[in-house]
Structure formats: structure tokens, C-alpha cells
Amino acid sequence: MTKDEAVAKLEQIATLLDLRGENPFKSRAYRTAARALESLSEDFESVVREGKLDQVKGIGEGIRAKLQELVATGRLTYLEELERSFPAGVVALLEIPGLGPKKVKILWEQLGIRDLEELEAACRSHRVGKLSGFGSKTEENILAGIEQRRSYAAYHRYGDVIGLAEHLVEQLRAHPDVVRVSMAGSFRRGKEIVRDLDLVCSSAKPAAVMAAFISSSGVQRVVNHGETKSSVILEGGLACDLRVVPDEDYPYALLHFTGSKEHNIALRQRAIAQGKKLSEWGLFREARSRFSAGSEDTASERESEGERIRCRDEAEIYAKLGLAYIPPELRENLGEVEAAERNEIPRLVEWTDLRGTFHCHTTASDGHSTLKAMAEAAQESGLEYLGIADHSKSSFQANGLDEERVALQQEEIRKRNKEFRGFRLLSGTECDILRDGRLDFSDSVLASFDYVVASVHAGFSTSEEEMTRRIIRAMENPYVTMLGHPTGRLLLMRKPYPVNLEKIIDCAAETGTWIELNAQPLRLDLDWRWWHAAREKGVRCVINPDAHHVRELGFVRIGVNIARKGWLRREDVINTLPLKLVEKALRKKRGGGG
DNA sequence: GCCGTTTTCGGCCCGACTGTTTTCAGTCG
Predict the structure, then answer these.
(1) Helix (H, G, I), strand (E, B) or coil at A225
(2) Are A76 and A9 in contact (CB under 8 A)?
(3) From CA A100, how far away is CA A96, in angstroms rounded?
(4) Can you identify the CATH homologous superfamily of domain A3-144?
(5) Would the Cβ of A463 be found within 7 angstroms of any atom in strand B?
(6) Of A170, A188, A282, A471, which sits most exposed with the smallest number of CB within 10 A?
(7) How far is CA A181 from CA A144, A204, A292, A330, A461, in A?
(8) What SMART domains is this protein classified in (predicted)?
(9) A399 CA, B5 C1': Å apart
(10) In chain A, pLDDT over 90 holds for what percent of residues?
(11) Average pLDDT value for chain A
């Protein structure tokens, strides 16, 4: 029984207690206990076994007994009882926006609704609107919520599939008959949302590789199984295709299946203009030249396509087309072919360029790891500095810090900094941008931080003009270092709030305010589509993990993918700077002007 | 269910918004 599993069980209990309509403070107690357990730095099982749980604030007699049962037997009878009182589908109803425990309880008790399908039917037959507390507007909203969920079901967030994708590649790479293997498709291009995974590999024994692939762990169902192409459904409903080709075909296949379609079309047009032809099978000279040297290879079997130009890898294909190599992230036909022709493909930022990061939370607000643990994890991963930016006081829901607690945290940071060598904690805040664009702290308090992340967390339902004005007002405050998650979107869950990003980017350029690339996989905000233009205007990017747990510090790696997709170079990303230069940049920002 | 102390039960995080209602409950951040 790991700590994380125990935490999950406590949270399940809290949710089920809510559904049962128990005293809300009781379910909160379970959530508090889960948080307390999370920030436990000692080994969970030994703490329970040695009876040290009673020293943990937030875990009392009742929950302690349940954790002891869990560690001793691996079971939790209280949770099992609770689970018996609701069908599994009822819990899933909570994921519909606007439905909380009270409403779900009514739907289950009064209409016997057990899952989303039954809920949809009940809304369509207007049985829901007749319930007390419900109405026609609620029915509409529920139906819209179900519809949204359904349309999202075919899509997956990059961060949710990266583990599976890497696992599949590793499995294939370990196979003795596999020569080369790579992810292809939108995943390889680093798209924030993917529909499926595409794998390309080369082998002289495709049948053996295919057999291994369809039986690999993580495969739930085989849709198609052939010699060169197989399709499977992975756990979690993600579709995955594998293509196996002879090794000499590999570069062309990889290029083709990486796409994008638009990029491929641009490359083909270019090939045609040069008297060549490009397809997934190769790059060919026109048929009339097929008697020239080197025509004995497999291309001679496809005489109508002419002689294949041999390329050992993708870079050679680009070179034969008179182009510089184009990294997969840029292959969207958004100017990369033209840039490659002029040899102006930027040298994109790499995740190993990052020297530090800002915008991390701790247990002081809504984070699940302590300041100490975050600092240790950052040092272990080789960072030179880590910025702590817990929530400000208006974010009650996130246990935001008031001025007094800010002072305490700053004191702790000062103390810890005296102990570090070659590493520094920076004291920051994720300060709420209030409804009128004022900030949640006075200027004198803001001045006490090393830096300020200004973010919108409430009041999303406003006009674009109002929201834009609000954010610009905040950015004009000289103490605001950077704008946090500029659109507030949650991928596949919540649309961005309305905001005029052109004006925000212009304002960032004028005031020298950095814009965050929030690397939390749910956000990836600001979107990569805006970065190229922002860079051209001189806006600096800062890649932040928005980490609420030590293991989330690694999110910056996904953020770097997105930055690359946005054409950003190392010099465009502030946190590639070493500590000394970052400190200088922070002072310069304070000094006014960019 | 936990905590604190006011030693045995009362308080536990706040405010805005929506849709329902006709004065407020539920949800969300």
C-alpha cells in the first residue's frame, strides 16, 4: 500500500460522503487528512506501523484506524460499504459542469439515474426540469455538458499519453528484430491534443514485430492486424497504429506519417517543382531518368515512379529538396518550409537549456509538497533556482496567503537560502488579478517579493473588452513580473476566457512583462500558436510548471515542447538564463521599462 | 471527522454567479 493509493482512497471516501449528503465538514476532514498524508515526508507504511500517525495534524482517531486497517489488510471496509451504496456511474455524473453532490444525489434518488446515458434520456424527456431546484435551463446545461464530454472523448491530452507512448517505443526498441522505431503523427509534432498515436518502425521480419506489438502490455483490443500495419486500442481508449517497413523505406515513411498533412503537401509541391515526386515510399526522380546510376534498388520495381533518391534519414530528404532540416514540432506549414529554404530554421530551445523555473506552489497554499521538498527536488533535477509562488489571499479556495503568512514564508526562504550552495529559492506570489484589474496585494507588499506572477482565477464570465482591460491594468503595475496562464483554459475541459491576446501581447512588449508558458499539461497556456508572433514583438517567455507536487516539476519538459512548437529559441525563454542574469533581469523589470 | 480548549462541544474558508425562486440553494474557483 503506497501513500498515493491511501490518499486516493481517502478522497474517494470524501466524494462518496458528499454524495450521501453527510455533514460537509466530515468529507472535508477526509480531504484534509489526504492533504496531510500527501505532505508526509517519512515512509508511509512505517509511519502507520510504528503508530506515528497521531503526530500528524489533520489525522485523528477515526481516520487513523482506517489507515491502519488499510496497511494491515490492504482493504478498507468503510470505503467498500460506501461504494456499495452507489453505482459507479453516479460518481461520474459529478464531472458534468453544474452538477455537484446535492444535485447528483437528487437525480439518483428521485429519478434513479445511474449514468450519463440515463441522465441524457431524462433531460430529453424533460423529467429533470420538473424536479425541485432544477429547471429548463439546467436541462440545457446538462445536455451541453454531456455533448462536450462526448466530443472530447475522441481526443487526448499530450500529457496524458506521453507515458504510454514512451512505453510503446521502448518495448519495440527492445525487440531484436526492430532496427529503427519512432513515434510519428501529431504526438511527434508535439501537439497539445492528439486523437491517436502513430508509430513507425523498420524491420526485416515485420510479422514477428507485429505479433509482439499487438500482444504488448497496455493493448486492450486489436482492431486490425496485418503484415505492415496494425491498429489497436490502448487502455484508456486511445487508438494506436503501427507501421512496419523495410529499413531503406524508413525515413520516407517516418516523414510521411509525422505530417502534418499540410506540411507534406508543401513538400510534395516543392518536389514536383524540382522534377521529383515525394510519397511515403520514397523521393523519386522523374521516370525518364531511371536508367541513371543506382537504379538497382527497390524503386526499380515501381518503374512508373522513376528512380528513388536514396536517403538515410529525414535530414537527407530535406537536403535533397534543398531545405534545411525541419524539426517535427515546426511541421505545420506555417512558414517552416520557406524558412528552411532560406536556411533560417531557428535553433529551438531544448529542455536541458532550462536553468530554473518560477511559479510553484507549496503546502502553504494548495500545493501538496512542502517548501523544503520542492527545494530539494529542484536541486536534484539540476536547477539553479526555483521560484515559489503560492496563491494570494483572495483565492480562499486555494488557501491563499495573507500578508502575515507571506512574511513568514519569506523568512523561511531567507533562512533556507543561507544553507544552499549553487542554488537559490526565489520568493514570489501568484497574485490574483481582481475584478477591476487591481492586484490582491498593495504595492509595498508586492515589492517584498523577488517577483510577481499575476493571474486571473475568478470572474471568467465577463466581456472580452472588460477582461482585456482588467489584465492590461494589472500588467501595467511595475511590480508584476509575468502574466500567469493568460487565457485560463483547461484543455478538453474548459474554454479560454474571452480576452484580446493581441492587445495583451502588445502590452507585454511595451511594459516588458514576461508571459508565462504554463506547462501544466491541462493548460499549456499561452497556446503555441501565439508565440512566434509574440517573439517577433520582443516578448519574453517564461516556462513554468505550475507545480503543486514535487513530481510536477517535470512538467517544464512538456512546456519546452510547446515553446519549440512556437518557434522559440533559448534566448527567447527567460528561465534559460543562469541565476545571476535572472536576478539582473528581475531588478531591471522593477526599475521600470523593459 | 478533527481540533482546541471556552475540557466536551462548537466551529470548521469566502464571495460571486447561476438558475431557481420570489429570498435562496448549489456550484465553482
Answers:
(1) strand
(2) yes
(3) 8
(4) DNA polymerase beta, N-terminal domain-like (1.10.150.110)
(5) no
(6) A170
(7) 42, 13, 32, 21, 47
(8) POLIIIAc, POLXc
(9) 24
(10) 65
(11) 90
